[in-house]
């Protein structure tokens, strides 16, 4: 859970934010902006997939964001990110299919692990390389 060190008193009254801006529901310390969360998810695993980015066409909100991912097998997915976790909502970029009843995954690692054997291999190799580097560091 992401906490912020924000004091609502720091903003002047005439900030110029419109009523329909992203800040209208800002309540200080307990806000979790899903777009920021989605960007973090993408940055975490981008190296292990062919392509991954936060959707620019589907609406991001405080409680939901959409991430497009193309696995190394060239399969495309649109993922929904909410407090419940991540799940596949379509089998193409920037789409949602209400008929899809896919399970939520707590982490992007778990989701990609279930979708992409190539992701699993690349991610596993990255962990092994990191462990080897740490081992060498501790021996020197």
TrEMBL record:
* Record domain GSKIP: where: 34-134
Task: Tell me a Gene Ontology molecular-function term this record carries.
Answer: kinase regulator activity
Question: GO cellular component annotations, sorted alphabetically?
Answer: cytoplasm
Xref: InterPro entries: GSKIP (IPR037395), GSKIP_dom (IPR007967), GSKIP_dom_sf (IPR023231)
- One GO term (biological process): regulation of canonical Wnt signaling pathway
According to the record, the residues making up region (Disordered) are 1-20
What's one Pfam family here?
GSKIP_dom
- Stated family: Belongs to the GSKIP family.
Q: What is this protein called?
A: GSKIP protein
Gene name, per UniProt, is Gskip
């Amino acid at each position: 859970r992401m906490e912020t060190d924000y004091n609502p008193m720091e903003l002047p009254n005439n900030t110029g934010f419109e009523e329909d801006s992203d800040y209208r529901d800002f309540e200080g310390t307990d806000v979790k902006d899903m777009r920021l969360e989605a960007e973090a998810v993408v940055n975490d695993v981008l190296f292990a997939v062919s392509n991954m980015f936060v959707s620019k066409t589907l609406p991001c909100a405080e409680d939901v964001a959409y991430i497009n991912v193309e696995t190394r097998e060239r399969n495309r997915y649109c993922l929904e990110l909410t407090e419940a976790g991540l799940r596949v909502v379509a089998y193409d970029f920037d789409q949602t299919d209400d008929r899809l009843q896919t399970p939520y995954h707590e982490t992007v690692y778990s989701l990609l692990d279930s979708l992409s054997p190539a992701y699993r291999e690349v991610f596993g190799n990255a962990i092994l390389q990191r462990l080897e580097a740490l081992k060498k560091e501790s021996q020197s």
